[in-house]
Known about the structure:
Blueprint: E1 3-4, H1 18-27, E2 32-35, H2 44-54, E3 57-68, E4 71-78, H3 85-111, H4 117-128, H5 137-146, H6 153-161, H7 176-185, E5 189-192, H8 202-215, E6 219-224, H9 229-242, E7 245-249, H10 276-279
Parallel strand pairs: 1-2, 2-3, 5-6, 6-7
Antiparallel strand pairs: 3-4, 4-5
Helix pairs in contact: 1-2, 4-5, 5-6, 7-8
Amino acid sequence: MKIELHCHSTASDGALTPTLLLERAHARGLTALALTDHDTLEGLAEARLAAQRLGIALVNGIELSCTWSGATIHVLGYGFAEDAPALRAALDDLHQGRWLRAQLIADRLTAKGMGGALEGARAIQQAAGDTENAPARPHFAEFLVRAGHARDRAEAFRKWLGAGKLGDVKQHWPALEDCVATLRASGAWISLAHPWHYDFTRSKRRRLVSAFVQAGGHALEVANGMQPAEQVGSLAILAREFGLMVTAGSDFHAPGEWSELGLYRAPPDDLSPLWRRFTDPGATQQGVA
């Protein structure tokens, strides 16, 4: 079985609609997929129809934003009840916060002579696929390129939208503990996303994993795309130390970027993969053991 547990569509910051994403997965021979858009379930209904047509097993998925020790952290949830009240309430709060953040980014760009950013980013977002979510920084980056304020998206982030820049607007995310509690209350299996992507020392990364375990997390994403093998090895050591299951995924957003759909390093064989909870007919399907 070829499985993808970390990918994004136009429902958040991906380049492909859920239908096109599933068609790409099918063309690449994937047999199971979890759509893990940022802080939204909006793409799941369309993805489910495409998955049924293509014969792909679709797992309910999401990537939630939260904070820990002053940093923004991402947590992956799988196999949850889509209509769970706790999750729906949390997503409503995040939805409103993302729109406030988008407006503030646009206001800051306007103050620097780059007007029309919100409308422009929103138009780019809607052209890729209808969504009620706020435009994200990749949409603003594309607007800046088309408006002539940057040569390409890389320069847009480097000059205006990257960490510490004008458009790097921090949102008030829930705490890690609250995020995990929301997912547990919704019956999810929970994995800590790309622990190596955070700019942490080894000791701080270990403290993060410890806090995640104490909050009730189940697994560690030890492989994110084709990240260096030594990083996978270091994360595997943490998974063994804390007795965690593991996940892996491409973190696919768009063709030609970070990693291709379904392409990621394989976790070490001695670790227990979380995806068996979805693919083994005899496994427990409820996220809270």
